[in-house]
Each structure stands twice: as structure tokens, then as C-alpha cells.
Amino acid sequence: MTNATVFPVIDFSEIENRSAEIAHQILEACKTVGFFYITNHNGPTTSEFTQMFEMVKTFFAQPAEFKTQFETDQLDCRGGYTAITPKYDMNNMVTQAKTVRFEGFEVSPRDLSNQKLPNMFTDNKKELDLFFKKMHSVGISVLELLAIALKVTPNQETGANDYLSSYHRYGDEASSATSLVRFMNYPALKENDSSGNNIEEEVVCGAHTDYGSITLLSHRDIGGLQVDIDGVWTDVPKVQDALLVNLGGTLMHWTRGLLKASNHRVIATPKETKNRYVITYFMQPETDVKLADIPSPLLPSIVPNLDGIPTLNKIVSAEDYIKERFIKAYKWEKKEVSSVE
Length: 341
Fold this sequence. Notes:
One of its GO terms (molecular function) is metal ion binding. This protein is 25% helix and 18% strand. By secondary structure, it is α+β, with helices and mostly antiparallel strands.
């Protein structure tokens, strides 16, 4: 099986006329690995992605004293900057790398008008909002196609396949919206460590599954993302002008494990001489949504103990589910650290 088969590229062109075909392709990808690329979508254009990446690069190129003005104060904070050397001990994250070797900046579409942002973001706030809305629109399309594939009865009043998408309103449409955007910078890896030893590769973001429903990711020219497939770390290929989609734990829970959220990680090697910049849109249900079984005839009759979290066998709110994941991952502890190995 080739990487192209494991990580299919799904063409969204003529989606109105090909919805059943595309929905089937998405379902097959989500039942196996839960990662796939999409092209010809209704999201940001190539030029809009280029503009956004330039903005992101400009921010991360600033000195530390500038970036730390926007530092997030706690692990569960929505929005803000996270340095490569974290303010709080990230070693409590059970499946996370011992050292987190990337810096990030999170923006909440819900709080875009109020969040403290650097000037390169505030000067382009309209462009940011439009970019976020277009990313959200792609996510809505994926969720509607999944509803078709899962044979969920359409909305009786409108005929829309909105069972899933109706629980994921955009930030300015719902006070309970929780979706967020994360910009990330993985600095290029040096050939030798502090002791002069050669470095072949290093895990810069440890194995984990995402918490929300779906994640939309653009990583442009630099690879490094790997997915655990039957115990083998498999490289996710780079696909030009395509948007990578992967499933999170919420949808795995919602479908009794029919849809798969796979462990993934990021590695860096000295052969990649440039920084790896990533734009990620984490699409999450609104906080008060109850994660009862999706009304699909395809769901398995036996509920597996997914992720080892007992609440997955119960009906919980999206907020409680995501909080449970945080508790399991971070143990909800904040320990000051003086240095990172």
C-alpha cells in the first residue's frame, strides 16, 4: 500500500453533482487512517495562503521580548503565544514529546475583535477574519459530506445534510463556539546537538490525537508529519496546493469508533534547512453540544473503550469531553520550569 493510497487526495470540484461520490471517498479515508487531502475546495486561495504564511513568518521572526507580550498564561487558555521553551511543564502530557520544539500563536475566531494581537495581525484583521471563515466553510463541507456518507437523515425542514455542521457555528455566530486557529513555527534542526553528536532526526511534537471534530492543516513546503499506522510511523506526503484534513477524538467518540482519529507526530531532520511553518484550523463543536451517538445505521453496536477514557461510554458535552482529554494529557497541572532539555 502506497502513501498515496493511505493518504488519498480527494477532489472537491463539482461538489454539488458529485456529493455522494466524494462523501464515500471521505468515509473510506476516515474509517481507516482518518487523514486525507482535499483539492479544489471552497477555502482560501493559494494567494490567500501565501499572504497568511508571510504574516505568520513576520511574527515569528520578531525577537522574544516582542512575542512574549502575547504569551498565554495557562494551558487551557484560548488564544495567545506559546514559546518553544514552555512556561509550564509540558512533560505531564502523557503522549507528548518530552520537549516541545515549536512555538505557536492561537487565535480564537470568536474573540478576534477582543483578543490582544500583534500589529501584523491587527493591521490585517479583515483578511484574518475572511481567511478563518473560508477555512470554516471547508470544514462545514467536510461535515456535511460525512453526514451523507453516514446516511444521517437530512433536515426535514431544509433538506440540508446539516446534522453535524449545525453544531459547529462560526465564532461570531455563537457564544459557545470553540474552534480556533493555531499558527506554528518549527525551527530547522541543527546537525549537531550541544555535545557535538550528529542528529539524524528529532521528534519535535510528540504522538497525540487531536481533540475536536476535524483539523484542517496547511504545511506548505516542509514535511515532517507522521501518522502511526499499525505501529509504523508513516510519512504524510506533501501535496501541492492541497489542504490536509484529519479527524479528532470528538468525531471518533460521536461515531462509536467507526471514524478513526490516528496518533500522529512531527519529526525534524537536518536535511530540512528551513523552518516549518504550519497553519491549523481546529474545528470543534460548541461547548454545550451533547455527544450522543450520531443517528447513523452504520455505527457499530458495541462501544469500544476509545482512548482509555471512561466517559467515552457516556453521553457527555463537547466541553466535558475536551476537558477530559486535557486532564488525561496534562493532568491539569502547571509546574514552572527553569529550562527544557
